[in-house]
């Protein structure tokens, strides 16, 4: 759906992106991750032509972005900026209605859409639509920023570190929201972060960048299990030894509610299985049930394990720091 073909970017004479090639499929949750200054924002902004290319071509639906009317292009690409960027003098509903207004939707259609979107992210329209941004918490403002980008129903959503300004709890809540939202609306999302744990949690595929080049593109599993370079290994914060750590299956149970029938139908492993055994069992299964003394006590899914690995390494030592 979106294709970068030999795309380079120079600022003055300095090249900051070197002949990038990548293809993003429809409905993907595609993550760009990498250290500060590696070119993530530049890559993102080239898609909606906020930044011009120096070389190469970007295609959307097989048509070069140069051949689209720039306004049409931007209306059809939602954009969530890093800083909360609501217009302070406008109400929540006016903020959300900006692109629908530009597209000359009817008043009625706009009002319905605003209410629908607010409801979708858990903000009661009656309570919130007339508020000004400074009458909302940071997390609520960020949610409005996300639905504003969705207002005119774009096919593509660009998100540049949308949650980085939030405290860890609000951040986790919004991450869960966006996963749920994506399952419902099936947009093509390109999401920038420099947080590997966030990348692993959200992404269907992850593109790791370094110094204006792509180091590796792959699913979260591929990146964790088969890092292509030392840089990727370091960035993921995972060393092989962590796979041998003394963690048992029962410490990895996912927190979702137990449904006995579903659990019984899953392949089973013992509560005392090692992390290595757990990973082996998840190689071909999305989730497995955990058995202790003949009783099923819960389940483990792949995402939980991957997140767990990323997080513990993160806390254990600051390997990420050394990459910056
Ligand atoms: N307008 C500009 N003029 C000159 N150089 C720029 C400009 N915008 C970005 N750059 C340079 O291009 C490189 C890539 O910047 P970019 O903003 O894409 O990085 P990033 O990966 O998004 O970093 P961060 O994680 O800090 O947001 C950097 O070296 C930056 O200094
Ligand atoms: Mg950036």
Count of helix runs: 15
Instruction: Give the integer mean of the pLDDT values.
Output: 85
Bound molecules: adenosine-5'-triphosphate, magnesium ion
The order of strands across the largest sheet is 6-7-8-3-9-10
Rg: 21 Å
Helix proportion: 25-40%
In CATH, what is the class of the largest domain? Alpha Beta
Name of the CATH homologous superfamily of the largest domain: P-loop containing nucleotide triphosphate hydrolases
Classify the oligomer: single chain
Number of E strands = 13
Name the beta content range. Answer: 15-25%
GO molecular function, one term: ATP binding
Catalytic activity: a quaternary ammonium(out) + ATP + H2O = a quaternary ammonium(in) + ADP + phosphate + H(+)
Pfam families: ABC_tran
Enzyme class: translocase
Describe the structure.
- There is one protein chain.
- By secondary structure, the chain is an alpha/beta fold.
- It folds into two domains: 2-236, Rossmann fold; 241-316, CBS domain Like.
- Helices cover 39% and strands 24% of the residues.
- It has 15 helices and 13 strands.
- It has helices at 40-47, 70-75, 92-96, 98-102, 107-120, 125-128, 138-150, 168-185, 196-202, 220-225, 230-236, 260-265, 275-281, 302-316, 319-323; strands at 2-11, 14-24, 29-33, 55-60, 63-64, 77-80, 156-160, 188-193, 205-210, 213-218, 268-270, 287-292, 295-301.
- Strands 6-7-8-3-9-10 form a six-stranded mixed beta sheet, sandwiched between helices.
- Helix 13 (275-281) links the parallel strand 11 and strand 12 (287-292).
- Helix 9 packs antiparallel against helix 14 (302-316).
- The longest helix is centred in the middle third of the chain and has 18 residues, at 168-185.
- The two termini are 32 Å apart.
- The protein binds adenosine-5'-triphosphate and magnesium ion (MG).
- Magnesium ion binds at residues 40-41.
């Amino acid at each position: 759906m979106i294709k970068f073909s030999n795309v380079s970017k120079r600022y003055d004479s300095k090249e900051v992106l070197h002949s990038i090639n990548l293809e993003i499929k429809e409905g993907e949750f595609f993550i760009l991750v990498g250290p500060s200054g590696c070119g993530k924002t530049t890559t993102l902004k080239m898609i909606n032509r906020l930044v011009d290319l120096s070389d190469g071509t970007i295609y959307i639906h097989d048509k070069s972005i140069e051949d689209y009317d720039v306004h049409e292009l931007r209306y059809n690409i939602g954009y969530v900026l890093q800083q909360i960027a609501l217009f302070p003098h406008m109400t929540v509903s006016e903020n959300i209605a900006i692109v629908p207004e530009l597209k000359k939707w009817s008043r009625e259609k706009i009002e319905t859409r605003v209410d629908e979107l607010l409801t979708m992210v858990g903000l009661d329209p009656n309570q919130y639509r007339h508020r000004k941004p400074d009458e909302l918490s940071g997390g609520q403002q960020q949610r409005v920023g996300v639905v504003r980008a969705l207002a005119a129903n774009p096919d593509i959503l660009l998100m540049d570190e949308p949650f980085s300004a939030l405290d860890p709890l609000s951040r986790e809540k919004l991450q869960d929201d966006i996963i749920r939202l994506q399952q419902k609306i099936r947009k093509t999302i390109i999401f920038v972060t420099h947080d590997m744990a966030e990348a692993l949690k959200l992404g269907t595929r992850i593109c790791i960048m370094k110094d204006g080049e792509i180091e590796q593109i792959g699913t979260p599993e591929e990146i964790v299990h088969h890092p292509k370079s030392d840089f990727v290994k370091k960035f993921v914060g995972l060393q092989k030894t962590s796979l041998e750590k003394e963690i048992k299956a029962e410490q990895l149970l996912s927190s979702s509610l137990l449904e006995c029938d579903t659990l019984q139908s899953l392949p089973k492993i013992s509560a005392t299985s090692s992390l290595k055994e757990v990973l082996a069992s998840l190689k071909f299964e999305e989730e497995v049930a955990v058995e202790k003394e003949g009783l099923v006590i819960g389940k483990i899914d792949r995402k939980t394990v991957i997140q767990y690995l990323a997080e513990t390494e993160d806390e254990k030592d600051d390997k990420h720091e050394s990459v910056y």
